[in-house]
Design goal:
The protein is of the alpha/beta class and 368 residues long. The protein is built from 7 helices and 26 strands. Bound molecules: NADPH dihydro-nicotinamide-adenine-dinucleotide phosphate.
Length: 368
């Protein structure tokens, strides 16, 4: 069966705060954006709406003085993007070709070409890479090991049992605090003796008497079996090297995130970790017409509100890029913003005052 072909002015990849904000702005500019989001998949950690879909209270998103639940906030973003005519497609993108414009994206059923591309594919949770962490049959992943307390915390296996959270950032504090609703006691295992988390999150965690900290400690191994799930962890003190087993029924890994840039590997400029590089005070990547926003290009702020802000920037950047593209005439000639005609054979440029000059770009491309 042949694939459906689509051509768009703007395609947005990702439906977190960055992607949906880009969609709201592009749709209001009448660009009829197509937003592609990955289907929900627990293993690949994809969920339409992004990371806020697995967050509970969002207290710091401006405009919600009483706070708002992450999924409710994303539902509002989505309704707003829909209201102005964003088209949504839930599909896995299997390949992208960014070497020439229009750019091409492939899914199982579609071939999509687009004049501009906004990458807002976000970031996913990192894993420790220790024995016992992987999915069954290689470990206990999904049987007591999780990277999402809000998704898995309420499971019966964790009720009134000791639970371990690994990490010392805001995610770890949020997950640990949330898990105290379910576990008998929650132990935060952190590799240093100081937290990275924001002051307010630290204060909340320290004030919670069901929460305890195990400092300067690494988790070396997750213990258990497929029948009983997780039964404990093997810990070691990073300063003394002292080792010991610690009983628990669940391990929640909360050690940060990595950008989702696998799809673009080798085609777009990234830093050594994989975050897409954007130039100066803009969302422009090294490929003209490709823009990046949100956590996929931000290793510093990583907030919903900053992601939304860069989503707005990406939409404006792509709109300006489209405004400056030459208009193709029925004859094949192109008219640039400056009023110059480039002939259909690309050999000559006719200036607004009627002069005919050789097309330098075309000549240079032929080694002139
Ligand atoms: P962070 O990078 O801030 O923290 C990661 C934590 O995990 C650090 O304490 C780090 O230790 C530890 N860690 C990293 N790698 C390992 C490892 N291999 N072994 C053991 N420990 C490890 O990530 P977060 O996901 O916590 O936060 C990311 C961003 O999201 C932040 O900007 C945060 O403010 C924001 N956020 C905000 C929330 C909110 O406001 N409600 C909720 C959640 C996140 P070390 O400290 O030693 O480096």
């Amino acid at each position: 069966m042949s694939k459906e072909t689509l051509h768009k002015e703007v395609v947005i990849i990702g439906s977190g705060p960055a992607g949906l904000t880009a969609a709201i702005y592009s749709a209001r500019a009448n660009l009829k954006p197509l937003l592609i989001d990955a289907p929900p998949d627990a293993e690949k950690q994809t969920s339409p709406g992004g990371q806020l879909m697995i967050t509970t209270d969002v207290e710091n998103y401006p405009g919600f003085s009483k706070g708002i639940q992450g999924p409710d906030l994303m539902a509002e973003f989505r309704r707003q993007a829909e209201r102005f005519g964003t088209e949504f497609l839930e599909a896995w993108i299997t390949k992208v070709e960014l070497q020439q414009r229009p750019f091409t994206l492939y899914t199982k059923d579609q071939v999509i070409t687009t004049e501009t591309l906004i990458i807002a594919s976000g970031a996913s949770a990192k894993w420790l890479g220790i024995p016992g962490e992987a999915k069954i049959p290689d470990g206990l992943g999904g049987h007591g090991v999780s990277a999402c307390a809000t998704c898995d915390g309420p499971l019966p296996a964790f009720r009134n049992k000791p639970l371990v959270v690994v990490g010392g950032g805001d995610t770890a504090m949020e997950e640990a605090t949330f898990l105290t609703r379910y576990g008998s006691r929650v132990y935060v295992v952190h590799r240093r003796d100081k937290l990275r988390a924001s002051k307010i999150m630290q204060e909340k965690a320290f004030a919670n008497d069901k929460l305890e900290f195990i400092w300067d400690t690494a988790v070396d191994k997750i213990l258990g079996n497929q029948k009983d799930g997780v039964t404990g962890v093997q810990l070691s003190n990073v300063k003394t090297g002292e080792q010991g087993d610690f009983p628990c029924a669940g391990v929640f890994i909360a050690i940060g995130h990595k950008p989702n840039t696998e799809l673009f590997k080798g085609q777009i400029e990234t830093d050594e970790i994989g975050y897409i590089k954007t130039s100066g005070h803009s969302t422009a990547t090294n490929i003209p017409g490709v823009f990046a926003c949100g956590d996929v290009q931000d290793s510093v702020y990583r907030q919903a509100v900053t992601a939304a802000g860069t989503g707005c920037m990406a939409a404006l950047d792509s709109e300006r890029f489209l405004d400056h593209l030459p208009i193709v005439m029925p004859t094949g000639d192109e008219v640039t913003m400056e009023g110059e005609h480039v002939t259909a054979d690309r050999e000559a440029i006719i200036t607004p005052d009627g002069h005919i000059v050789p097309n330098k770009t075309g000549a240079a491309a032929q080694g002139d």
